[in-house]
Structure formats: structure tokens, C-alpha cells
């Protein structure tokens, strides 16, 4: 009996012990589950924080196909006020007029940590390799001497070709000891732009910032208006000896020398460091866009950044570029004939007969909009990446960008980001419109040119000067 009781007691004790073990196991399981849930929640919070801090986008929105007339929900009025003697930018937010209201811009969405890591690699700027801007003159640099005469300059080409030429002419004026008269912008080229220097650039800033380097005036003195002047085509890619010997010697006979062209008149290499620094000061510090253009450019940048990091795509698929380069890939016979006619009728384009297939094989043609879409996809940019099109009218119209638009619906340009009223002062002025694209491109997180022309090189150089911002240049040569 006692044995039986003891056995029963032992059995009950063992059952209670097993029940306690099962209860402890259930608790441990529950505790482990809670721990995993907490770790998952912490990870999710960290991922959201990373998205907000580094990508600057909303985590819960969908990508929409934007209409051509899309505008942001808030437009801005631009004004100016004097701040401590300097020109300052004053921007006031005002509600968008009813006839311009649109659905808010959808933000980008990223899924998962892998996407974040992949995007981090894509958007990461390159190392500067200890290169820094070098524009300050050395201690031995002397102030400008008493000028011997006046240098008139007629610039030629598009915006960036004229910019480079103006910077060269600043250096030339220093070399020949001339007073530089504010250059005349090209009004007879393909774009037929009537803009004056002060319409595109901040004239007063240009003069004052270079006061220690070169004497610059807005107009030739009245007493010299009818003076005999030498009209000279400066030799292309000339060095310091050419200007200090051959050109400077002309002051013995003339008070005014007129440079008929400004592009590519000064050598890139073999110049004194002080002259190279002067060119950089002129390009990156003195040659600032007009206040109106700067303000509008900043507005476009702010609106692009409302969806986080963005790509500026210089899509050089415009009529003048295709006509000049002779590139007709993927065009109809009628379009190819139209471009050939333009090339033949443009007198200062010297090459008339061009083999389009050979041009393309050598990499001398811009990528088509479709090819750019394939290129961005191959680089693994997500489809909700904001892309700003820095270009004039695309040859062939909207039908030419259908494939690119289908891959990247957030395809924006000046006309989509700003109202007609805001762009009205710049319309029909190709140089001013190009200046807006230049600002948005320089400030972009990534700049991608479809062709290595004047603007592509100017933007890439400016981005390096400002801190080695990322530029991706496709290899267009067929292998």
C-alpha cells in the first residue's frame, strides 16, 4: 500500500514537473517570438529612418504616370531684396492658382534593405582624391596695369560655347593689357536668340569680381565709337606668345581691337598657372547667371528635390545636334533628308557629307532616348527615379520618348515643373532656357549626358569644381 501510494505520488510529481517544463517551454517560445518581433520592429524603424534621412522620400506612395501639364501643388513667387549690401534671394510661397492646381507629385518608394544598399552605391559621389579648386592668385600676382586699348568680343555658338569663349577673352585681355568691353552674345546662330549679356549673366558681378584682374566696362567710350578698329580672327588654340607678341603689337596702330570669334581662341595647355587660375575665376566665380535666371533655376531644383535624389539627363537629341553630327539612326528617310538640308544650308558648318553609320560606330552620335532608358535600366536605377530632361525640343516630339517615359514615369522638364507664367520671361530665348537646364544639371545628384558636347563638358567640369559630384558618361562607341 505504501509502495503504491509512493508510486502514485511520484507519478503525480513527475506529471506536475512535466507540466511545469511544458509551461516553461511555452513561455520561452513566447519570449523568443516577442524578441523576434521586437528585433523586426527595430529593423523596420531603422530602415524607415534610413529612407527618410538619406533618400528623402515617402515610404508609402505609388508611382503614377504624370500628365504633360503636371505642376507641383505649390508654386513660388520670386523677388529680390538687398541684404547687407549684397543681392539676396527672397522666395515667398503662395497658393497655386485654381486653373494650375494638380495632383501632388508622388514620392519614390524603395522596398527592402537590399534596395537601399543598391541605391546607396548608385548615388554615392566619387572620391575627390585630394583634388581641390585652385583659383586663388599667388602672392606674386600683380594687379592689372594701365590698359593700352579696348578689346571688343563677338561671341559665337550656344550658351556653353559662349561661356567658354568669354572666359578665354578675359585671359586674353590680361595678356594683351586691354580693357575688355562686355562681350556681345551671338544673335545670328541656329537659335536666333536676341538676349544681351545682362539678360543671361550678372553683368555688375562679372565686372566687380574681376576688377583686380582685368579692366572691364559695359560700353565703348563715346569718343571711340567711330574710331578705326582692327577686326581680327584670333588664331585657334593660340599660346601666350601669340597674344603678347603679335596681337599686343597692334596697339601701336589701333585703340580698338575686335575679336570676330571667341571660341577655342586660347590654348588649353602650356599657359602660366596664373592665367589658368584667371580662367577658372572667370568661369566659376565671375560668370554668374542673372538674378532672375538664378532664382528660377533654384526654384526648379527645389521642385525636383521634392521627390528626393534626382538624375539630370542631358538628352542631346535635338534637331540642331542631329543635323550637325549627321546622325540619323532610327529616323525615317524624310527626317534624315530634313536634317541633311539643314546641314547644307548652314554656311558655317563646314562638313556637309556625313556617313551616319560610320559616325555612330565611332561613338560620335548622341544616344537615342530609347537607348538612354535601356542604359539607366542596366545600371539598375529603379523605375521611380526622378529624371530631369535638360534639353530643348526633342526631335520627333513626344513619340520619341515613349519608351523612356514607360521605363521612368517621373520624367520631368522645365515645362512640367513650372507654370507658363513663370517660364514666360525665358521663352523664345534659347540661351536663357539653356541656363535654367545648366543650373538644374549642376545641382543634380547624378548628371548623365547622352553626348559629350559643350554643355556636357561644362556641367561636368563645374560639378568637379563644386565637390566632385557624380557624372556618368555612357560609352557610345560600338564594339
Can you tell me about this structure?
With 479 residues, the chain is of the alpha/beta class. The chain is built from 17 helices and twelve strands. It has helices spanning 2-55, 112-123, 159-176, 197-200, 203-209, 240-247, 273-286, 291-305, 319-325, 333-345, 356-361, 369-378, 402-407, 414-417, 420-423, 430-442, 454-465, and strands at residues 74-83, 86-95, 149-153, 178-181, 216-217, 229-232, 256-259, 311-314, 387-389, 411-412, 446-449, 470-471. The model is unreliable at 1-14 and 47-112 (pLDDT under 50).
String of helices and strands: HEEHEHEHHEEHEHHEHHHHEHEHHHEHE
Helical residues, percent: 40-55%
Main sheet properties? 5 strands, parallel
Structural class: alpha/beta
Number of helices: 17
Rg, Cα atoms, Å: 31 Å
What separation lies between the terminal Cα atoms?
Answer: 99 Å
User: What proportion strand?
Assistant: 5-15%
The average pLDDT is 81
Could you give the order of strands across the largest sheet?
5-4-3-7-6
Structure summary, number of beta strands: 12
Low-confidence stretches: 1-14, 47-112
Rough shape? globular
Task: Sum up the structure in keywords.
single chain, 479 residues, alpha/beta, 5-stranded parallel β-sheet, 12 strands, globular
